[in-house]
Every structure is written in C-alpha cells, then in structure tokens.
Amino acid sequence: MSTQQPFSIRIAGENSLIVYFGDQPSAEIATQVAQTADNLKLSMQGLLIDLVPSYASLLVIYNSLVTDHYHVRRCIHTAAAAAQTDDGQNTETGKLVSLPVYYSTESGPDLQSLADRAGLSIEDVTRIHQQTEYRVYAIGFAPGFAYLGEVDQRIAAPRLATPRQKVPRGAVAIADRQTAVYPAQSPGGWNLIGLCPQAMFDPNAEPSMPVQVGDRVRFESIGRDEFLSLGGQL
Fold first, then answer.
1. Which residue of 51, 75, 177, 205 has the fewest C-beta atoms within 10 A of its own C-beta?
2. CA 67/CA 63 separation, integer angstroms
3. For domain 96-229, which architecture applies?
4. pTM (predicted TM-score)
C-alpha cells in the first residue's frame, strides 16, 4: 500500500501555484519534489518562468501571457501524480555528489566542542558525518547553500547561541539534524566541523551549483595538503 500523502495545489500569486507534498521533509518527499520539477520542465516547456523547490513544496511560476492557472494546475497534477507512481519506494533519484572535507580543529573550530557534547572523539564525529548519504532538501538562504539531511542523531547539535559575524567560504557545518557547506563568507550560527574546497556556487559556470534539490551528497575526508592543493584556503 502507498505511504504517500496526497499532494495539494494552491494559488501563490497572480502567476504562480505551489504544490505541497507533506508537512515534514523526508527522502521520499524530496524525491517527489525533484521528480515533479523534472516532469514539469518537460511538459511545460515555453510556459515556465521558474521552479522553486523546497523541503516539502514546489513553487511553480508561469508566464501568464501564454497560459493560465487552470492549465498549469492540470500540468502540475499530472506531473505530481506521476512522481508518486513508485509509491515512494525509489528514493535513489538525483545524482550522487561527493564533497571533499578537511576535518580538523584548525578548519572546524566547533569540532572539539561538538565531539565533547556528544561524548565522542573527533575521529568518531568525522567518521559518522561521512557515513550518511544526505539528501538535498532545499537551497537557500544564499545561492548554493544546500540544506542536507538528515544528520545522525549522535552528532546532531543545536545552533550556536551567538552566531558568528563571519563564517568562511567552504565551511562544513551542522545545525540540529541538518548539515551544509557555506558557499560564501557570511554570518552564520551553525557548528563548524571542517572546510570543503569545492565551489558550491559559481554564476559563471553551467550548472552554477554542483547540487540540486533531490540530489544525494556524501562527504569524504581529505588531508590538509590535499585541501590546499584543491584550492582551499585557511
């Protein structure tokens, strides 16, 4: 029997509709969001302005000069229904991306405190962080900032009480049961456990981001010298 929740479609603006797939993010819902978006790209060529996927929803922005919300709603219903035909069993959608990480107290100033909080060694924390295959649930608050879940409960950690004014580009971080790589220097309150030399956003590249919603991510430990040789900065 299917475990999928019924999706719903609501008006979000004069030329946009939003599809809700559930209340809580999960690998199954992330798969539905990604598959629905892919289906709409094929079925609505020339009609779409943008698709904005999130944890459990998909915003569809269309060109109201060439279509209307009745037609778009039908397209969405067909696309979302098709995304549910596997009954949520196939979550191996999207590409698998490996991201290198230099884990250390030099590159991750919160690594020791996170390990202490968890009652684990630094080696345990980094090993556990690498063991999970994470799903890209959403992208924001900055271009290329991919929210990845879910972190193993053993190394989950609350956000910092006082956010940093400057988190370096490439910082690998944990907040609650999510992990992410900061694509650029910015303020931030997540726990920093390492640095990744991979650019997470390049407006001049195609594609501009190495990951999209629905993709899967694994982290792989590298040493200091390799991190620097790959263009990382300390």
1. 205
2. 6
3. Beta Barrel (2.40)
4. 0.78
